[in-house]
Design brief:
Mean pLDDT: 80
Number of helices: 10
Helix content: 40-55%
Order of helices and strands: EHEEEHEEHHHHHHHH
Number of strands: 6
Structural class: alpha+beta
Radius of gyration: 19 Å
Low-confidence stretches: 1-19, 158-162
Distance between the termini: 22 Å
Strand content: 15-25%
Length: 216
């Protein structure tokens, strides 16, 4: 379970620190999944909910990792949401101010589109682009634009080069991975690793190698 209950030994810390009980974690990465990381620091393993972009950039298990943390308090529970980049944390905290968007949906939104692209879509009133994010309908996208358009800073120019176009086999592999439940950004990154290696050419080989890359 990803929530930490206030009470017992934690009760004094919860009262003393309030909502901002934990703002940053640095420690050993014990486990990682597309929506979860466990970070050990001071002999305690913290269960942190993460987005797919953060998962994709996490270091290897057993190495040190630093996460910017948003501590969300709901009734008598505390949930930790972690981000490698301060800009992603800031966007997450803006998203949860929008009516109808809670922390879990905000993480899903951040997993469906790079942060800079989302900021541009919101500032540019690009409802069609926003509704392509899983879980976002037209009304939610319209609220995002209405409530956040003037609250988000202009994103800087992207330093990431445009991805080369995919061939038919690569498109089929990507579609199969997404249909299996993998978020598109993570699937694209894994497929990029496979295609750069130049070893897999057939659909079966490319699909197996991409699955192996996603499991690391």
């Amino acid at each position: 379970m990803r929530d930490i209950a206030c009470g017992g030994a934690l009760d004094r810390r919860c009262r003393y620190n309030g909502v901002n009980m934990i703002a940053h974690l640095r420690g050993k990465l014990l486990a990682k999944r597309p929506n979860q990381a466990i970070v050990e620091t001071g002999g305690v393993g913290y269960d942190v909910t993460i987005s797919v972009p953060t998962f994709s950039d996490l270091p290897a298990l057993g190495t040190e990792v630093s996460l910017h943390i948003h501590t969300h308090v709901r009734e008598d529970l505390i949930a930790l949401y972690g981000f490698l980049r301060p800009s992603e944390k800031l966007l997450f905290e803006k998203l949860i101010t929008v009516s109808g968007i809670g922390p879990k949906l905000a993480i899903t939104i951040l997993s469906g589109m790079p942060a800079d692209e989302m900021v541009r879509a919101i500032r540019g009133n690009d409802i069609a682009r926003l509704t392509r994010i899983p879980g976002i309908g037209k009304k939610t996208a319209e609220r995002m634009v209405l409530e956040l358009r003037d609250k988000l800073p202009e994103p800087g120019p992207s330093s990431v080069p445009a991805a080369p176009p995919m061939n038919a086999t690569e498109e089929d592999v990507l579609s199969a991975l997404v249909n299996l439940g993998y978020q598109r950004p993570a699937a694209e990154k894994a497929l990029g690793v496979v295609t750069k290696s130049g070893k897999a050419a057939s659909f079966d080989a490319m699909f197996r190698d991409a699955l192996a890359a996603l499991s690391k």
